[in-house]
Design goal:
Layout lengths: L1 E9 L2 H20 L2 E6 L4 H7 L5 H9 L2 E6 L16 H10 L3 E7 L12 H4 L3 E7 L11 E3 L6 E3 L6 H16 L4 E6 L5 H14 L6 E6 H10 L6 E4 L1 H12 L9 E8 L5 E7 L16 H13 L4 H17 L15 H19 L3
Parallel strand pairs: 1-2, 1-3, 3-12, 5-10, 8-9, 8-10
Antiparallel strand pairs: 4-5, 4-11, 6-7, 11-12
Bound molecules: nicotinamide-adenine-dinucleotide.
Length: 370
């Protein structure tokens, strides 16, 4: 298969973790016989430095021409006091909008080797494996009217939570389709006891569910969901929710994995004419200026994002599984970066990338009987 991918390393540790993710992507393609067509572009602080804007037109063109985009992280301290349109983070909003990615997926799973890194009790986290599907382009973050008006005692602020039926419909379909490849259960999160928005959300999700009789559906109010995520995370398979609730719940879900450096994410849009699904893949963490340039960032969130890309954009399930298995093995072996508090000397970013490449190659050779 031909994999046409845009690489956007971005800033800080984004550059280091992306280097390892690309190394792994090359190795997987090599081993499984796929053809890679890679391009590289600028986004974030580095793009401002070189072109004056965080999301240059050239990057937009490259992103639209690619089937999938792999992003490191953006953000540089020198832009901390810059106006919003001159900040690296503006590049993220720009590329998400340009690609029309309307669903954000955050796979959250616990790893045996990291159980002690989670603040939750081992028996609660052990075996947790869920995906939060968050609607990404609607709701309170985009609704109008919005703004602050008046002054003194008359000053008031307004935001508008708005959803249309098609916006809910398409993200719900995505959640049910994903559930079919997993444990076939969707939990839809809303606040339908108070918000009309949530009442429409629930009604449309119930209607979409009729197309997927093999998938079970339940509903949970967002406040209870926040509690259940830490009391009983294993009860969840796919968690489907709107933009604001998803933003909050996905950060809560992040604690299950033990370190922010472990977490991948995928933002998905429509199917392209090539058959691939438009996707933007990035680790959840930021550019971590405190450790940038030291070869000690954990690259596993970025490498997990490659696994997500292989699965969701290209349908390469076997390759994705092999990569996730390699991540698990590296964790078991203890050859991990300092953030995971290994018993011995911490591994460097590049050593973790090398270890994953070795494991993928070995596992393939064993499977093929070589
Ligand atoms: P951060 O995620 O960059 O760092 C938070 C803490 O986690 C730091 O102590 C950092 O060293 C550690 N950390 C993060 N990723 C790690 C990894 N892979 N391995 C080991 N340790 C890791 O968040 P922050 O400090 O709040 O933000 C720094 C910059 O990143 C800011 O400019 C912010 O706007 C930007 N940011 C970008 C994104 C993105 O590109 N998607 C996301 C969040 C923050």
């Amino acid at each position: 298969m031909k994999l046409k991918i845009l690489i956007l390393p971005g800033d800080g540790i984004g550059v280091e973790v992306t280097r390892e993710a690309v190394k792994v992507l090359r190795q997987v393609s090599n081993v499984y016989g796929h053809e890679l067509d890679l391009s590289e572009g600028l986004l974030g602080g580095v793009a401002i430095q070189q072109t004056g804007t965080p999301f240059p037109d050239r990057t937009r063109e490259l992103a639209l021409a690619a089937d999938a985009t792999l992003l490191g992280a953006v953000g540089l301290p020198e832009f901390d006091n810059a106006p919003p349109e001159k900040r690296p983070e503006r590049g993220l909003l720009g590329i998400r909008k340009a690609l029309g990615v309307y669903a954000n997926l955050r796979p959250v799973r616990s790893y045996r080797a990291l159980l002690d890194s989670s603040p939750l009790k081992n028996h609660l986290v052990d075996g947790a494996d869920l995906v939060i599907v968050r609607e990404l382009t609607g709701g309170l973050y985009y609704g109008t009217p919005r703004g602050i008006s008046g002054s003194g005692a008359e000053e008031r602020a307004v935001n508008t939570m708005t959803y249309t039926r098609p916006e809910i419909d398409r993200v719900a379909h995505m959640a049910f389709q994903l559930a079919r490849g997993r444990r076939k259960h969707v939990t839809s999160v809303d606040k339908s006891n108070v918000l009309e928005n949530s009442q429409l959300w629930r009604r449309v999700v119930v209607e979409v569910a009729r197309d997927y009789p093999d998938v079970t559906l339940d509903h949970i109010l967002v406040d209870n969901c926040a509690m259940q995520l830490v009391l009983n995370p294993k009860r969840f398979d796919i968690v489907l929710t709107e933009n604001l609730f998803g933003d909050i719940l996905s950060d809560e879900g992040a604690v299950l994995a033990g370190s922010i450096g472990m977490l991948p994410s995928a933002s998905l849009g429509a199917q392209k004419s090539s058959g691939a699904r438009t996707g933007l893949y990035e680790p959840v963490h930021g550019s971590a200026p405190d450790i940038a340039g030291q070869n000690k960032a954990n690259p596993l969130g970025a490498i997990g994002s490659v696994a997500a890309m292989l699965e969701y954009s290209f349908g390469l399930i076997e390759e994705a599984r092999a990569l996730n298995a390699a991540i698990e093995k590296v964790l078991d072996s203890g050859r991990t970066t300092a953030d995971l508090k290994p018993h011995g000397k911490p591994a460097a970013t590049s050593e973790v990338g090398d270890a994953i490449c070795e494991l993928v190659t070995k596992a393939y050779a064993v499977a093929e009987g070589n």
